């Protein structure tokens, strides 16, 4: 390519998630926040951690927030707080990031895979009911359901909560992708018994490393979680009253998140505008469906390709034109070698398998311009017309 040709400059590869654009906006404040941490020297559980916990709880309307090292640990800590282990069944969607099931297996419990709703990609309540029966038949104790808010949209907690209540299960929201979203006017963080989230850099609210948090209304459980994240500490750090983890959020990351939280509501509004515009201009694909009572934070903008289309061919054509695309997730967990032995909804997980075969995520971040969106839409339309 000729670099002096303005045409080739216009076709420079796009960012899938442009964290540099965000950094440009807040660089001075981030630098000041980091300098403040260095000046105080309290690198572990410094004052910024408690300040962030308070600010996050307030943002989403939860009572308690306990920060921890990452979103996977957040799930492990919840499983530990509920004493879940060998012989216990924990119901998880098959169409999710592996961490949801990994945390369960890591505690020695059994993940039981549930299918999704075809429109929202979130856990289906009828499938959950069948999976509970299957777990009992397999001799497991049903204990917990971990719903996932895939791509940034909350699962249907009202319906899932009714099934959980009926069966005596603890309801957990894996909100690694959805912090900042709402359902029925309530914030993610206040929709389940526990909500876990992640501050991995690419999540809607991300730090500059690993980070996570847990939300709950239960003060006793919040205290247990604070103990568990600090080696099971008791009244002081050298009294150990339970077996815990080393899973604290770094003060540096808390300070960075406090700056990012300041612009988060504005970024969520921008994501919504961008998602609406994508919905208007994309052709030849099924665009995302958000339940009428919900809002999404659009962690991903994920379309479904027609069945007749070869996804790899589309991805290659888009990639050549500088438009990155990603498949979240190509293999449902019940088909993963490390998880295939676990029980599933006996009716099968056909909707998870179909989604895994046909979804495609497009560039999405709060700094996407209308011009770039038009380029994405035109590139995708052109790619779809290519012979498979
Ligand atoms: C990112 C993610 C996690 C794990 O978060 P980490 O902070 O990377 O450990 C868990 N569940 C889902 C659905 C995720 O997207």
From TrEMBL:
CDD domains hit by this protein: AHBA_syn
Q: Can you tell me which residues form the catalytic site?
A: 203 (proton acceptor)
Q: What is the name of the protein in this document?
A: Aminotransferase DegT
Task: List, alphabetically, the SUPFAM superfamilies matched.
Answer: PLP-dependent transferases
Question: Which molecular function GO terms apply here?
Answer: pyridoxal phosphate binding; transaminase activity
GO biological process: what's one of them?
polysaccharide biosynthetic process
Q: Which residues carry this modification: N6-(pyridoxal phosphate)lysine?
A: 203
InterPro entries, sorted? DegT/StrS_aminotransferase, PyrdxlP-dep_Trfase, PyrdxlP-dep_Trfase_major, PyrdxlP-dep_Trfase_small
What is stated as this protein's family in its record?
Belongs to the DegT/DnrJ/EryC1 family.
Domain of life assignment: Bacteria
**Keywords from the named record:** Aminotransferase, Pyridoxal phosphate, Transferase
Hey, what's the signal peptide range on this chain? Answer: none
């Amino acid at each position: 390519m000729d670099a002096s040709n303005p045409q080739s400059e216009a076709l420079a590869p796009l960012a899938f998630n442009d964290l540099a654009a965000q950094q440009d906006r807040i660089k001075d404040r981030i630098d000041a926040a980091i300098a403040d941490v260095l000046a105080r020297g309290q690198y572990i559980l410094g004052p910024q951690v408690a300040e962030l916990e308070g600010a996050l709880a307030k943002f989403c309307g939860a009572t308690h927030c306990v920060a921890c090292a990452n979103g996977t640990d957040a799930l492990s800590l919840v499983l530990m707080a509920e004493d879940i282990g060998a012989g216990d069944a924990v119901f998880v969607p098959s169409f999710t990031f592996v961490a949801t099931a990994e945390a369960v297996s890591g505690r020695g419990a059994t993940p039981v895979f549930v299918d999704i709703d075809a429109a929202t990609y979130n856990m289906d309540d009828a499938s959950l009911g069948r999976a509970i029966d299957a777990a009992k038949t397999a001799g497991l104790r049903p204990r917990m359901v971990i719903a996932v808010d895939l791509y940034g949209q909350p699962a249907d907690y009202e319906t899932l909560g009714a099934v959980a209540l009926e069966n005596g299960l603890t309801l957990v929201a894996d909100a690694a992708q959805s912090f900042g979203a709402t359902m029925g006017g309530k914030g993610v963080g206040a929709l389940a018994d526990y909500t876990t989230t992640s501050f991995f850099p690419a999540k809607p609210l991300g730090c500059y490393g690993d980070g996570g948090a847990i939300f709950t209304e239960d003060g006793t459980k919040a205290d247990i979680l604070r103990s568990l994240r600090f080696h099971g500490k008791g009244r002081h750090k050298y009294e150990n009253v339970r077996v815990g983890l080393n899973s604290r959020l770094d003060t540096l990351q808390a300070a960075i998140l406090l700056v990012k939280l300041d612009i988060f509501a504005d970024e969520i509004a921008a994501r919504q505008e961008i998602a609406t515009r994508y919905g208007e201009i994309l052709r030849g694909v099924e665009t995302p469906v958000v339940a009428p009572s919900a809002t999404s934070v659009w962690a991903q903008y994920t379309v479904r390709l027609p069945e007749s289309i070869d996804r790899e061919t589309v991805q290659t054509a888009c990639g050549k034109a500088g438009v990155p695309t990603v498949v979240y997730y190509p293999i449902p967990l019940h088909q993963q070698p490390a998880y295939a032995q676990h029980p599933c909804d006996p009716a099968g997980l056909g909707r998870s398998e179909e989604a895994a075969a046909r979804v495609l995520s497009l560039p999405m971040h709060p700094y996407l311009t209308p011009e770039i969106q038009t380029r994405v839409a035109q590139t995708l339309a052109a790619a779809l017309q290519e012979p498979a």
